[in-house]
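Is this the right way to post structure tokens for a design question? Let me know if I should format differently. Anyway, here goes:
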């Protein structure tokens, strides 16, 4: 069983406190982090994903009874956010293959096509990322997060630039990973995204 355990973590930039003594014990399922724009949700997600370190406290990632270090976590974690940059000069297939090569995970062409189809991009494998619409780019970010068949899936504002059809695919994407027993964490200030979660933590409780 996957777990993310936040032990009284704190983060600030200069004199600005982002969050203080935040605690959480997350297990498989879909969980939410709520808060208004600028409240620190993205900073918290980066701490929980191992991208940055908290100033105080500790984040522990576990798979079964075994603790994961940051290097192993990268092979088991999918992360999507509007600020994640894929390569504009690569086509969709090349972007996904590059992620797999970096993390040492192997999947065949059929797996890539299945992931592309799951986010509504079937048939666009050869399309350059830089020529996709903003909504299609967001869909490919979701595909990039899911391509490794992750044990942990962290989605920061996953509905950004998605229309009604895109959000329907996002709901299916989240449900697919829920059914696979993945630990899914969604950071958002939008009700429609937080409604996908079975539990929600408000970051404002840790100011």
């Amino acid at each position: 069983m996957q777990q993310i355990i936040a032990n009284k973590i704190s983060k600030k930039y200069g004199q600005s406190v982002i969050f203080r003594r935040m605690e959480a014990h997350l297990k498989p399922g879909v969980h939410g982090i709520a808060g208004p724009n600028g409240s620190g949700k993205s900073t918290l997600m980066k701490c929980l994903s191992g991208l940055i370190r908290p100033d105080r406290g500790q984040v522990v990632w576990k798979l079964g009874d075994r603790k994961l270090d940051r290097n192993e976590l990268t092979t088991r974690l999918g992360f999507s956010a509007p600020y994640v940059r894929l390569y504009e000069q690569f086509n969709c297939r090349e972007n996904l293959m590059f992620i797999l090569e970096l993390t040492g995970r192997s999947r065949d062409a059929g797996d890539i096509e299945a992931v592309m189809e799951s986010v509504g991009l079937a048939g666009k494998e050869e399309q350059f990322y830089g020529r996709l619409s903003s909504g299609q780019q967001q869909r490919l970010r979701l595909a990039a997060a899911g391509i490794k068949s992750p044990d942990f899936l962290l989605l920061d504002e996953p509905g950004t630039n998605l229309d009604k059809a895109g959000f329907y695919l996002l709901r299916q994407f989240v449900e697919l990973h829920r059914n696979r027993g993945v630990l899914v964490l969604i950071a958002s200030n939008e009700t429609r995204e937080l409604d996908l979660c079975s539990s929600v933590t408000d970051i404002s409780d840790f100011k």
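Format looks fine. Someone answered above. Worth noting: Residues 164 and 170 are 10 Å apart (CA to CA). Residues 2-206 form a domain with the Rossmann fold fold (CATH 3.40.50.300).
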